[in-house]
Amino acid sequence: MRQAFFEARRFADVADLNRQLAEWIAATAHRRPVPGDPARRTVAEALTEERPRLLALPQHRFACELQRAVTSGKTPYVRFDGNDYSIPHETVGRPLTLVADEHTVRIVDGVTELARHVRSYDHRQVVEDLAHIAALAAVKRAAHELRGRDRLRSLCPHAAGFIEALAHRGHPLLGETRRLLDLLDRFGAPALDAALAEVLGRGAVSAAAVAHVLDQQLRARRTPPPLAVVLPDDPRVRDLHVTPHALAPYDALTTAQETQHDDDDDDRSR
């Protein structure tokens, strides 16, 4: 097998290799004569005569899958053979077992199967189950909603009363929070807080009413409206939260460098 079949043989994948092997057995190996046979039978003829006397194959297939202990990192994926396979997000960081055969990669926890994927023979591929991604997106979306409310409360003093009024009136908090966060990013915390206070005073509590107040203020100042950032529908992009940082330290560094340059110029002029 190693010398007569495998050496210098090219194949596209395992299925192609198996097809070539079957052709080689039928066209080459089985046509060879049985060594030392006076009747000069071929291997195929000898196999046909001997088959009725051979033992039957086992009723259950012999377990020859590769088993490996795996643990994911911070993301819901486990790596095997240079590729990443998704797992349920709630099993991140837990010791699991990966079971791989020729066609399938399974991730199990004891006797419970957590994930089943078609095995990839490429490299650096991400093999995902859409159910895993959808469940992760739902959890991230809920966590993002809570973080969004906390962000509104921390930046806008009137946000707590506004959100409480929304809850009492039965408004969907997820959509309203997203709209308010969008207004916060577009108009800034002072303008949004003033609009929240005005809307609360009027009693028309909704994100649409806040947007209307902010739009009226822009028109009164003859200021063009800020352009909204268009993001793809991928939840891994939309649910990503980037914490803004103060730019004052960078301004201080720039000022210090300009002062140093001015001192150097004074020294050279002297």
Structural commentary:
Helix content is 49%, strand content 12%. It has helices at residues 2-6, 14-27, 43-50, 130-155, 159-168, 173-187, 189-202, 207-221, 235-238, 248-269, and strands at residues 66-70, 77-80, 83-86, 96-100, 104-109, 112-118, 126-127. The protein has a 4-stranded antiparallel beta sheet, with no helix packed on it. Strands 2-3-7 form a 3-stranded mixed beta sheet, with no helix packed on it. Strand 2 and strand 3 form a beta hairpin. Helix 4 (130-155) crosses helix 6 (173-187) and helix 5 packs across helix 7.
Helix/strand layout:
Layout: H1 2-6, H2 14-27, H3 43-50, E1 66-70, E2 77-80, E3 83-86, E4 96-100, E5 104-109, E6 112-118, E7 126-127, H4 130-155, H5 159-168, H6 173-187, H7 189-202, H8 207-221, H9 235-238, H10 248-269
Helix pairs in contact: 4-6, 5-7, 6-7, 6-8, 7-8
Key words describing this protein structure:
270 residues; alpha+beta; 3 domains; 3-stranded mixed beta sheet; 7 strands
Radius of gyration from the alpha-carbon trace, in angstroms: 34 Å
- The 3D shape can be described as elongated
Number of helices, counting only DSSP H or I runs of 4 residues or more: 10
Oligomer: single chain
Count of individual beta strands: 7
Instruction: Give the mean pLDDT.
Output: 84
What is the strand arrangement across the widest sheet? 1-4-5-6
**Percent of residues in beta strands:** 5-15%
Q: What is the string of SSEs from the N terminus onward?
A: HHHEEEEEEEHHHHHHH
